[in-house]
Structures are given as structure tokens and as C-alpha cells.
Amino acid sequence: MNELRKLKHKPILLFSFILLLKSAVAWYVVFDDGLNWSMVLTEVPIFIIVFSLIEWFAGKRKVLYYMVANLSITLIYFAVLMYYKYYGVIATYHALRQVKKVANVGESTYSLIAPYYLFVFVDLVFFLLLVIRPKYIKGWMSNTSVRMNRKVLITLTAISLGICTFNIWPHHASMNEHKKAESMGILGYELYTVIVDTTEKEVLIDSDEIKQQAVNKIKGVEILDNPKYWGMNKEDNLIVVQMESFQNFLIGLTINGQEVTPNLNKLVKENTYFNNFYTNAGQGTTSDAEFVVNTSFYAPENKPATSSDYMNKRLPSLPRLLGDNGYFTATFHTNSVEFWNRSALYEALGFTHYYDQSFYGDVDHIAFGASDEVLFAKTAQELYRLNAEEQPFYAMVISMSAHHPFHIPEEKYKMELPRNYEDTLLGDYIRAQNYADYALGLFLEDLQSSGLWEDSLIVFYGDHQGIPMYTLSIEEKQQLSALIGHEYGYTDMFNIPFIVHSPGGELPPLMSGTGGQVDILPTVANLLGVSAESQLHFGQDLFNQDSNVLPIRHFLPTGSFVNDQSIYVTGNGYADGENYSLEDNESIPGGSREKQFEAAQRLLEMSNSYLLQLPDEVN
């Protein structure tokens, strides 16, 4: 008891011990590791530096400053572990720019919280009680007001700075942010990120060097004089359906004899199906998918496209390309256009019109707006009206009911699940996607009965992963692995379906080459007979190219990419990275080439450099 009282009178020791326990929780979640010497030697020196500054400068209110520092560091740890559970990457201060969005996706955020995460806030409740009891807080402040010996503080600070330097500098060149944070410590990595971003200026590639010919050369794209299927759907409408959180493993999946996605299964059998197709979404997930599909550029680094410096520019885009060829262009989404700054996105992309919550209302609410049934029913009516006009249209339709955390009303259930799937993320996901497929089936019926099915090139694809491998419990991982026949991993998580319906029905039924969302623009442009060569793009026509390289941004370490055989995940550099087979997620040797690794980085740099150097003007 006496030792505890002594500790209370030495806040530098008390608060260091408290934060050490909190860092252990964060390390357990992020690095699958608990309290160990590596963690102590990387995290504690940061505590000591912060607390030494408080001891040096603070007087009577020293304890309050300790509490503020404790709260600030606690929030950093909590943000890191929460962010990691969904995105699989270490959050930095960049993520704080999107803090206002958390309130809008509250249910999704809260669903990620495991009860033991709240342990990091237990001491804050105790300190709050002290603050509202003036007698106790004044006594504590009085007993701790004496500053520590200056020589001791200097020694502690010097040693801590030395340890921090040793932790940070030898690992600064690592490309893998996860390994970097583990070596530097979470707080050391956060500090390093701030220092680098404020001291190092981004070097942009000269826009004169970024030409379509240069992009094609890096990607190995060969321009054909007579590409296959050119203009097969000339002057047809284009309907693009973006399916929320839809992953490819759902195609053909059955549970107790029930098809999870019967309507999409039918689409796959009767149209063209790309089974090795991958998301290119970044931090902005759904809105980033909209950006990538409509521009054939890559999502920006460290922020959603809708919050980037791209939004005040006139972006090269599919709406502009088709608009220049006589198309009316519109996008359909049941949420408010202001959410995720879509009003700026749609203006930058050059859509003629958008339909949002003001058009659909907030009836039959699921997730963030009207249900998919309402979305598809009202959209079908509007498309029928547009089809009666003289000009063809491009319509992008964005579903949303199957949004994380996949909670749909019980009256929307369309299938029975085994008891062991109830109240699990996997079970909720399957049930939500089964409902989304049901709503899509109603849309398909409307398109067919109205004649739009025969007048339109229609494509369907998932926007981003729905089941992060970092979020699943051990039992859910086992369930999912049993469903798909192998261990669930990166190649399953990023694999989304891409289905193309052409009224002529002359396209091949199955395309097994690697593709991604960045490839949709040139692929549909070829089918519509609209040349994209005058507009810079980073994708390729999937019907006329055999090989591909797709950089993955944000969800994997810098440098990661997909090629025709595997997903490559960067190590500290290229040499110690790993390759995961696209077939079964097994680790394989030699699945990628260093030339592709370098190409993926160059493509990302070119994409970002080109867009940032566009003039700041929208209209």
C-alpha cells in the first residue's frame, strides 16, 4: 500500500505504467503480441520524453497536464487499434481528417469495438472522479507540485531520445508500414510520419513525361489497330451497377442448399464474367471506387479521393468522355450528396446530373439511406424515362444496403442461416448480401420488362472488400475457410466480381485474366466504340490485353500489387516480400518480378503527379 502511495506521488512513473498497459492492448490487436521488452523499449521512451517536458515546465497544475497527455496518447492507441481492425493498416494523423465521418458511420464504427478495448479508458473514469472531487485533486496536485531534479530529467530525456533514434532511424527506409510501426513503436511511427510529412516535400513527375504512350509502355500494353469487340455496343446506353462490399467468393456459394446470390449467379452464367478482378479502392472505399472507375486513375495516398486536392480540378473521366460523344450522364445514390464530399466528386468528374436522398427520400431506411429496393425501383423508372429521350445515357447506380456492419431489418431476411452463423459478422454479411442480391433481381426484372436490357451495355462489380481478415474471430475465420475451401486471405479479400452484359451476346462467357476497377473505363469505351486514347488513363481494355499489373494502395503495405499469378505484399523492401497465389491464397515463391514492383510504384507516382498538376478549375 505504501508503494502505491509513493507511486501516486511520482506521476512520471504512475502514468508511464498506465500507458504501458494501454500500449500492450494496442500491440495485442495490431501486432498479435502482448507485453514484451520490444514493446517496452519502443513505447516507453516516448512517454518519458513527454512527461519530462511536463516535469520541466509545469508547476502546480502538473497533474492536469499529465492527465491531458494521458488522454491524448490513449486516443492515439484507441484510434490505431480501431482503424487496424477494419483497414488492416496503421492509422496516422491523416486519418484524423476524416473524424467527422465517424459520426455518420457510427454503427459501423461501434461494431468493431471488442469489450476489452474499453480497458484503455478505465483510468480516465477514475481521474474524472478525482477532478470533480476538488479536495482530492488539490491534495494530489499539492503533493506532486515539486519539480523533479533537472539533472535526472536531462539524463532521462537524453537516454530516451537516444533509444527513440535507435528505434526509428534504422527502419525509416522500410516500405512496409506495419513492420515499420512494429520496429519504431506505435508512437514512434506516428511521430516519424508527422516529421517526414512536414520536412519532406513531395516530388512530382513532370506532366510532360506523363503520356499515354509512357503508361502503356510501363504496363506492357500493346495498342491494336483492330481491337476485338470494338463498337459492338455503339450508341447503347451504359449502366454501371456498383455493389456495396461485394466479394467474389459469394458467387456460386450455397449454404444448406440455398444460393446466397441466385440472381448474380444467373448473370454470371448468361453473360461475361471476370473471375480474377480486384478492387482498386483506397481509404475512401465506396467513394474511391466511384473515383477509380470513372477516371481510370488510382486512388490518392493517405486520404479519400473526395478529400484530396483532386476535387477542385476538371478530371479526365468517363462522364466527360461519353458526354463528348453525345451521352447524358448521371449517378444514383440514396445517401445525401454531401456525405463524403460527393457533391465535389461529381462536379470534378463532370456528371450532368446526380440523384441522391432528395430524390429517393428516406423511406424503408437501411444503412445510410433508402433501401436497395427503393434505389432500384425509382432508378428503373428514371432510366425508362431517360431511354425515351433521343440521346443515349450513362447511369452509375450505387447500392448501399449491404454496408458494414451488415445489419438489415429482420423483415428483409430472405434466407435461413445455421445457428452458428447468427450474431456473427460473417452471418450478417451473408444475409445482407443475400438481400442485396434479391433487390438486384427486382432491378433486373424491371430492366428486362422495360426493354432497357436490350438497349444497354450493363456492368456489375463490387466496390471493395466486405470481410476484413483482421476483423474476423478465430471461429469466423474457420467458418469462412470451410465455405471457400481454403484459408481466407488477401487474394479472397480483394477479389471482387466483374460481370458484363452486352445485348449482342457475342462476348466470351469467362475471362480469367487479371483486371481491376481501373480497367473498367477503357474496357467499356472499347465496347461502345469510343476511343479513350486522347484521354490519359491507367487501366487497359481487358478484352484485348493478356497481362496486367495492379498497384494496391492503402490496404496493404506500400509497393504491394496484383499480377497474373499472385498478390505481392511488400516486406521491408522488394526482396523480403511475399507472394500469395490468386487461386488459393497459398504463399508461393517467385510469383512476381522486380520489374513489376518498380512499375507499380511508377504508375502510382505518375497518376498522382498528373492529377495534382492539373489546373484548379471545375466546370
UniProtKB/TrEMBL annotation:
Mn(2+) binds at E244, T286, D463, H464. Pathway: Cell wall biogenesis; lipoteichoic acid biosynthesis. InterPro entries: Alkaline_phosphatase_core_sf (IPR017850), LtaS-like (IPR012160), OpgB/LTA_synthase_biosynth (IPR050448), Sulfatase_N (IPR000917). It is found in: Cell membrane. It is a multi-pass membrane protein. Substrate binds at H403. The keyword Manganese applies. GO terms for molecular function: metal ion binding. It comes from the Bacteria. The keyword Kinase does not apply. It holds the Pfam family Sulfatase. The chain crosses the membrane at residues 12-31, 37-57, 64-84, 114-132, 152-169. One of its GO terms (cellular component) is plasma membrane. Keywords: Cell membrane, Manganese, Membrane, Metal-binding, Transmembrane, Transmembrane helix. Residues 237-530 form the Sulfatase N-terminal domain. The active site is at T286. PANTHER family: LIPOTEICHOIC ACID SYNTHASE, PHOSPHOGLYCEROL TRANSFERASE I. This is Sulfatase. The lineage of its organism: Bacteria, Bacillati, Bacillota, Bacilli, Bacillales.
